[in-house]
Amino acid sequence: MASIARLSEDDLRWMCCRCSRPLEVGPVELTYLGNSFTLELPRCPDCGLYLIPEELATGRMAEVEQILEDK
Ligand SMILES: [Zn+2]
Fold first, then answer.
1. Using a CB cutoff of 8 Å and minimum separation of 24, what contacts does 16-24 make?
2. Domain ranges of the chain
3. 8 C-alpha to center of ligand 1: Å?
4. pTM (predicted TM-score)
5. Could you tell me the distance, in angstroms and rounded to a whole number, from the CA of residue 13 to the centre of ligand 1?
6. Looking at the domain that runs over 9-70, which CATH code has it been given?
7. CA–CA distance from 57 to each of 11, 18, 25 (Å)?
8. Which of 25, 29, 42, 48 is the most buried (most CB within 10 A)?
9. CB of 41 within 8 A of CB of 20?
10. Distance from the CA of 2 to the center of ligand 1, in angstroms?
């Protein structure tokens, strides 16, 4: 499985805002440009809320596009 997100310790300090539980890294299915793919992201084990790393949230999806092209 490709892991494009470089997770920092800061990412793993996040708590779920709904459950107040620490996030755990696990597979999260995302959809981008009509394609779905799975990334290892910090997510809430209870409700499934997940954290998008800043480099993804700011639109730097070039690496993701590369993954999709490799399919
Ligand atoms: Zn939660």
1. 16/44, 16/46, 16/47, 16/49, 17/49, 18/44, 18/46, 18/47, 18/49, 19/44, 19/46, 19/47, 21/45, 21/46, 23/50, 23/51
2. 9-70
3. 20
4. 0.56
5. 14
6. 3.10.20
7. 13, 20, 17
8. 42
9. no
10. 25
CA of 56 to the centre of ligand 1 (A): 21
In DSSP terms, 50 is beta-bridged to 43
* Residue 22 CA to ligand 1 centre (angstroms): 9
Residue given tokens 């999260």 in the structure block? 28
Q: List pLDDT tens digits, range 9-28.
A: 665 677 888 899 888 888 88
